[in-house]
Design brief:
This protein is α+β, with helices and mostly antiparallel strands and about 200 residues long. It has 5 helices and 12 strands.
Length: about 200
């Protein structure tokens, strides 16, 4: 990860100068995310700002105005056919990988993207890819990988999903948003069931 700093020098009508800074932490492989991350950073007035600048409200980019989706994503443990090929694939797809302490032949993965969600876009190819299908090609026979992700944009759009991947490419998945349809089916349409999105 690298820290990216944005500094803006402000000059008041009385000629007093002050500065505004914002910082974002991101993976070096995602330079296009700089603008998105800085847009949600909370700027601060530096210590060398003039008293007038410190005492007056400065324009700020409030995190409440805009938020990025921040997730946590990881898998269960599974065996792979070729450890070297699997490690190279993980590196190419921004995935962290480790082995089970009790069985070093079992691997797990997690997202190493700047927002923590499972990667799905290849910037080199400028195209989307199917993580589950690519992972299936690495799975050893008899092992199923389960990819779990949960995240939110602050208190908006809280979501979670899981997909189980068979070595032959078949998948089954579930999504937390399915609870609304399940509730209607179980309790009937005559009840108010609002969505937890804003």
């Amino acid at each position: 990860m690298v820290d990216v700093f944005l500094a803006i020098r402000l000059e008041a009508e009385d000629g007093q100068a002050s500065s505004l800074t914002a910082c974002a932490r991101m993976a070096p492989s995602t330079p296009s995310a700089i603008a998105r991350r800085l847009a949600t950073a909370e700027p601060t007035i530096s210590a060398n700002a003039s008293p007038a600048a410190r005492s007056t409200r400065q324009p700020t980019m409030k995190a409440t105005d805009m938020a990025d989706y921040i997730a946590t994503a990881r898998s269960n443990y599974f065996a792979v056919k070729n450890e070297a090929a699997f490690a190279a694939w993980c590196e190419r797809r921004d995935l962290a990988t480790w082995t089970d302490d009790q069985d070093l032949t079992l691997h797990a993965i997690s997202s190493d993207t700047c927002h923590g969600d499972w990667p799905s876009y290849d910037p080199d190819e400028d195209d989307d890819f199917d993580l589950a299908q690519e992972l299936a090609a690495h799975l050893a026979p008899g092992h199923v990988a389960v990819l779990i992700e949960a995240g939110a944009e602050k208190l908006r759009y809280v979501s979670g999903s899981a997909v189980a991947v068979h070595p032959d490419g078949r998948t089954v998945q579930l999504c937390l948003d399915d609870i609304y349809a399940m509730a209607k089916a179980a309790f009937g349409d005559d009840l108010a069931i609002t969505q937890a999105i804003t």
